[in-house]
Design goal:
Blueprint (H helix, E strand, L loop, with lengths): L9 H18 L1 E4 L2 E4 H12 L3 H33 L3
Antiparallel strand pairs: 1-2
Helix pairs in contact: 1-3
């Protein structure tokens, strides 16, 4: 089996990272006063109420970093599978 260098598809990475960012925001739920609210809603309400403070910026940075890593991993898998299907022995 010959090893091949795969290049990063930046547009695919960007799209998948944005989708991961939104998915994380919708899937992560917080129990606030007996009601479950998504991370997106809690963050948006905090920005409107308090503005961008250090703690909120750290949360957004961690959230974006996790989404970027997930997006990168997904695009790697897609690029490798696409190359594998394109060049079959």
């Amino acid at each position: 089996m010959k090893l091949k260098a795969h290049t990063t598809n930046r547009r695919l990475w960007l799209v998948l990272s944005a989708l991961a960012f939104v998915a994380i925001g919708l899937l992560v739920q917080f129990d606030i006063k007996e009601e479950y609210e998504s991370l997106i809603r809690v963050t948006a309400e905090a920005v409107v109420r308090e503005g961008l403070q250090t703690g909120l910026l750290v949360l957004l940075a961690i959230w974006a970093s996790v989404a970027a890593i997930i997006g990168w991993a997904l695009q790697c898998v897609i690029v490798i599978i696409a190359d594998w299907r394109h060049v079959r022995p």
